[in-house]
């Protein structure tokens, strides 16, 4: 499935280069100060809430909300940052970044299958603060080059690994944030045990984020107690009966708080 998705992405990127040349992106890009890594470092736990409508493996995940509506709910629920999926197999669009920027002040991660430097320029042009880089689909040379180009563009990076071999590769780079994806790329099943299995092999010099398979505060609390600094959650939020309540639960890593809660007690209506 991953190979098919990446093949489709290559075709899409080639077409977009013809429609919107790189020089045009560079000319129309507005500089933004880096904000994503700063948001993750601001506390000992951070929720990166993903505006995700569908997945190739499970189809539609939510029909109740649009991407901007999800962004509003996540912002009200205490998320530290937002992830916006921009690839077609996930019903995402590059334009969703601007739509989310219009309703939320939180930093935005462009989540996609980055296989070309052009996509880094696209992300900056669209208004993203950070990009996801997936070690499984990049060579060592590509990973090093993309990290360098992202830095030149003022984009933070979240580098995703699935295995010990990928973790070792990434830890030979200056990548400051590593995401451990709990999804098995052969079966597409998830188990947060994958994060705990790789933690002993991390070098202690990076911010660590756990991705996929995090369903509630109990998972978040275990991860935080193990030294993980945050979680990227999509399906666990959008499929919840009360997305706002689940966002608060994950943003607090399952811990009670005496702090005042946002005024909303129910999810934002669809036309909010």
What does the secondary structure layout of this molecule look like, with pairings?
Blueprint: H1 2-19, H2 22-28, H3 36-41, E1 46-51, E2 54-55, E3 59-60, H4 67-76, E4 81-85, H5 95-101, E5 108-111, H6 117-126, E6 130-134, H7 140-153, E7 156-161, H8 164-170, E8 177-181, H9 193-198, E9 207-211, H10 217-225, E10 230-233, H11 235-238, H12 243-251
Parallel strand pairs: 1-4, 1-10, 4-5, 5-6, 6-7, 7-8, 8-9, 9-10
Antiparallel strand pairs: 2-3
Helix pairs in contact: 2-6, 4-12, 6-7
Description:
The structure is a single chain. The protein has an eight-stranded parallel β-barrel with strand order 1-4-5-6-7-8-9-10, surrounded by seven helices. A two-stranded antiparallel ribbon has the order 2-3. The model is unreliable at 258-272 (pLDDT under 50). It has one domain: Aldolase class I (TIM Barrel). Helix 2 (22-28) runs parallel beside helix 6 (117-126). The protein is built from twelve helices and ten strands. It has helices spanning 2-19, 22-28, 36-41, 67-76, 95-101, 117-126, 140-153, 164-170, 193-198, 217-225, 235-238, 243-251; strands spanning 46-51, 54-55, 59-60, 81-85, 108-111, 130-134, 156-161, 177-181, 207-211, 230-233.
């Amino acid at each position: 499935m991953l190979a098919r998705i990446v093949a489709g992405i290559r075709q899409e990127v080639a077409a977009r280069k013809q429609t919107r040349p790189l020089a045009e992106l560079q000319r129309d890009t507005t500089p933004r100060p880096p904000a994503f890594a700063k948001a993750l470092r601001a506390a000992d736990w951070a929720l990166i809430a993903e505006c995700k409508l569908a997945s190739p493996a499970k189809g539609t995940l939510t029909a109740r909300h649009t991407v901007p509506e999800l962004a509003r709910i996540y912002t009200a629920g205490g998320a530290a940052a937002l992830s916006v999926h921009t690839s077609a197999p996930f019903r995402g669009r590059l334009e969703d970044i601007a739509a989310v920027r219009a309703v939320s002040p939180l930093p935005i991660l462009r989540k996609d299958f980055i296989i070309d430097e052009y996509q880094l320029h696209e992300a900056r042009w669209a208004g993203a603060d950070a990009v996801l880089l997936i070690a499984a689909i990049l060579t060592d040379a590509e990973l090093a080059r993309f990290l360098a180009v992202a830095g030149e563009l003022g984009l933070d990076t979240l580098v995703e690994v699935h295995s010990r071999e990928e973790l070792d590769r990434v830890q030979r780079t200056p990548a400051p944030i590593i995401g451990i994806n709990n999804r098995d790329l052969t079966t597409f099943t998830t188990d947060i045990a994958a994060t705990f299995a790789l933690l002993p092999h991390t070098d202690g010099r990076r911010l660590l984020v756990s991705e996929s398979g995090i369903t509630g505060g109990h998972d978040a609390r275990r991860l935080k107690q193990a030294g993980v600094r945050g979680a990227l959650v999509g399906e666990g939020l959008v499929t919840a009966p009360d997305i706002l309540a689940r966002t608060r639960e994950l943003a607090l890593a399952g811990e009670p708080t005496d702090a005042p809660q946002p005024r909303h007690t129910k999810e934002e209506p669809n036309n909010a």
